[in-house]
Amino acid sequence: MIAGHFGFAAAVKSRTPAVPLWALMLACVWLDVVFVPLVLTGVESIDSVPGQPPGAYGAAIIHANYTHSLVGAIVLAALFGLAFAERYGRRTAVVLGFVVLSHWLLDLPMHRPDMPLLPGGVDPVRLGFGLWRSPVAAALLELALVLVGAALYARAVFALTAEHPAKRRLGRACAASVLAAGLLTLALNVLGQ
Amino acid sequence: MSFILGTILFVVGVGLLDARLPWPRSGRGPT
């Protein structure tokens, strides 16, 4: 899941307008951002389901004992929130930490059982409800997250710009951009790009 | 590619566009 995380972050922005959108968007994929250098250094890895081409939608099996373990995700969420606490305040830090952790929670129904509870590979339990085995259903769930997130964000933006008429055009551009970027990201992901 | 492009689009593109809206501010710094 990629686009669905961004949709969720857009929905959170509509409820927490003081939290910067760019920080919410970074928070919602922070586990994957950290995952990339760990893959490049061989600490974590990603495979495809046998018979599926690399990058095919819903075919990933991750070996991510740090970034995608529940305890690891909680630690990364806490660190991410702390990094924003001094400059943006405690409430923003808590919201951002929650959005980081939401990544693990939203991955849970999608992944095949490949997400541990404890970091370091000491935990034999692997969680994941496997909705990716039904790529159409998984893509529809992601599409719903994108559409709902974009709609909630647009509603918040339009309410804001109703009080600032000079910003109405910018508001429409922001709302359209969230929807367009979400749909583009989802389309590329589904197409295996 | 979808992960990298999506992250850049949302964090840099949409995020910076949104930062020009008059949202309420949090903390001591700019948002």
Give structural attributes.
heterodimer, A: 193 residues, mainly alpha, 2 strands, globular, B: 1 helix, 0% strand, elongated
Protein architecture, described:
- The complex is a heterodimer of chains A (193) and B (31).
- Chain A has 193 residues and is mainly alpha-helical.
- Helices cover 64% and strands 4% of the residues of chain A.
- Chain A has one domain.
- The longest helix of chain A is centred in the C-terminal third of the chain and has 28 residues, at 135-162.
- Chain A is globular, with a radius of gyration of 17 Å.
- The model of chain A has no long low-confidence stretch (mean pLDDT 95).
- The interface between A and B is medium-sized, with 42 and 28 residues.
How would you classify the helix and strand content of chain A by structural class?
mainly alpha
* Major β-sheet profile of chain A: 2 strands, antiparallel
Order of helices and strands of chain B: H
What value does the average pLDDT of chain A take? 95
Report the helical percentage of chain A. Answer: 55-70%
In short:
The complex is a heterodimer of chains A (193) and B (31). Chain A contains seven helices and two strands, in the order H-H-H-E-E-H-H-H-H.
